[in-house]
Amino acid sequence: MSADVITIECAPWCEDGDGHAEASGRGDQSCWGPADYTNLTLEEIAQDSFGSVASQLGVMAYRGFNQLPAAYLHLHLIHHELGDLDRAVYLTAAEARTLATVLLAVADTIEGPDVCPN
Length: 118
Ligand SMILES: [Zn+2]
Prior knowledge:
There is one protein chain. Strands 1, 2, 5, 6 and 7 form a five-stranded antiparallel beta sheet that branches. Strands 3-4 form a two-stranded antiparallel ribbon. Strand 6 (70-77) and strand 7 form a beta hairpin. By secondary structure, it is an alpha+beta fold. The protein contains one helix and seven strands, in the order E-E-E-E-E-E-E-H. It starts with 30 loop residues before the first strand and ends in a 7-residue tail after the last helix. The chain has one helix at 93-111; strands at residues 31-32, 36-39, 45-48, 51-54, 56-63, 70-77, 85-91. The chain has a domain at 31-111.
């Protein structure tokens, strides 16, 4: 007996927004918001055929099938001796806000509150 993939109701911020009807299984029916990556200039870099590649930390909204929405932190840390670290961490909205507040406080501590890149 065959079964069609039933579309889901996408999160309002989902970049696809079509219910993921083309997914081949439930595991592919994940909603992703826009990704925002920061190059980690104090961390290791690597060279590939396109030039240099930086270690990065990415942040985006995520909701897996039958899961709660989360802030998805994606760490790609280049480490030549041990191999690259490619891991994700899921945060609740409250945890993401707490982390953002702490990061701002640490940035103010190391650089002062009057410095703004914008
Ligand atoms: Zn979606």
